[in-house]
Amino acid sequence: MTKEYAFFRGCFVPVRLPHLEAVSQKVFSELGVSLVNLNDFTCCPEPVGVGINDKMTWLSLAARNLAVAEECGLDVITICNGCTYTLRHAQRNLNKNKQLRNKINETISDTGHEYRGTVKVSHFLEVLKNEVGMKKLKSAVKRPLSGLTIATHTGCHILSPKEVMEFDDPFDPTVLDDLVAVLGATPADYDMKTMCCGWTLMTYGSREGAYALLKDKLGNMKLAKSDCITVVCPQCFYQFDMGQWIASRKDIPQYNLPVLFYLQLLGLAMDYNLQDIGYDSHKVKNPEFENKIK
Amino acid sequence: MPVSIEYKAKNELLQKFPKIEICLKCNTCALVCPVQYAGFSPTNTYVNNVFSAPEPEKNPNIWLCVSCHKCEEICPYEVKPTEVIEALKDEAFEKGYAPEAIREEINQVLTVGFAFPIFQSLGFINRERGRRGLQPLGERKVEEIRKIAAKTGLANKMVRGKTK
Prior knowledge:
The complex is a heterodimer. By secondary structure, chain A is an alpha/beta fold. Chain A folds into 2 domains: 3-124, Glutathione S-transferase Yfyf (Class Pi), Chain A, domain 2 (Up-down Bundle); 134-293, Rossmann fold (3-Layer(aba) Sandwich). In chain A, 50% of the residues lie in helices and 11% in strands. In chain A, strand 7, helix 13 and strand 8 form a beta-alpha-beta unit. In chain A, helix 4 packs across helix 6 (98-108) and helix 7 crosses helix 8. Chain B folds into 2 domains: 8-95, Fumarate Reductase Iron-sulfur Protein, Chain B, domain 2; 100-163, no CATH class. By secondary structure, chain B is mainly alpha-helical. Chain B contains 8 helices and no strands. Chain B starts with 7 loop residues before the first helix and ends with a helix. In chain B, helix 5 (100-112) packs across helix 7 (142-152). The longest helix of chain B is centred in the middle third of the chain and has 15 residues, at 81-95. Chain B is globular.
């Protein structure tokens, strides 16, 4: 039976990385999960730039988004760590604090929505692991990626704070490694695995700092003989792809590590070619990696 | 570098977050903090810098924090620097010290419902989406966002912050 989810695309993917939206739709429909676009969703809103500076607005807009999915009777699937962080914080705060929930519901009442607390929010990795299951994933693999060593980067906001996100160990995450191993590839064992990608540093403060961070992090991936990087968040994707490209023109070595969203990797294992997963719009390409996909 | 208590603002900060006083400057947080790359060192960590600035809410460095919560998870004394930094950002935003990039992003969310600028390039975005077999992006429910922002006071804060 096809399970339906309200597809929370966020802002970054539909605007700057539409190829990731397309590949998500394709891969999930083949796995028997249908992603439904709801037009009423707005920005989650983004936690670091918006959320922290005005908590009440942050929670209210997030509650409105959750209510939109509830009204359609659908659980939410996200493809961004930031969206997951925002929606799950709102959910947790409103579910355990009745007073706050009433206050927020009063705030959003003019919009005709009401948050009741019945919706579940899952990052797509959780859907793959718990809903689709390792067994089904394994049988979906038509072309094992056995020649590849892959550096996994789970990102920050899906891991911490641990008691809110309840996803994986913040200092030793293994879920993504397991999901990479299912595809037949080898997860790389590299230092600084849980260090941030540096996206926020690049956006709100210190470009030089972000380059230095990339130099160390990518260097460690290279040391562990990685062929490519896999990520589960569009900001991490952009930072490792575009960020690596920009940084390599400044003062960091040419690492040439292609970045793949986990769903692109899954697509490759399901026998899509590089064109199908939108590799043409990547900034960092590496022929050595491409040859291993043949 | 001990936390200075000479300043009035510092006293207020300590009163609000008494756990700051427990901070031993063991610098364990520096091992996992991405902001360390922005010119900090193990003997002058980012967290020290935030805790010991004379007027902490005016310290531009507070905006570098990613809220990755790694410091609070590794801290052996449960100091929770993220909480302090987030509260300082909140206060700084209210008083009009937020950098333009932050204000602009909030403005985007309030006026178009996206956290990123899209208007000038919507045609390009939709062409690219079409090439991938995706529907063009439509308008988001900005009217509803406006109603919420008016009620929470964010709309007013944005106007007030501008005059500073």
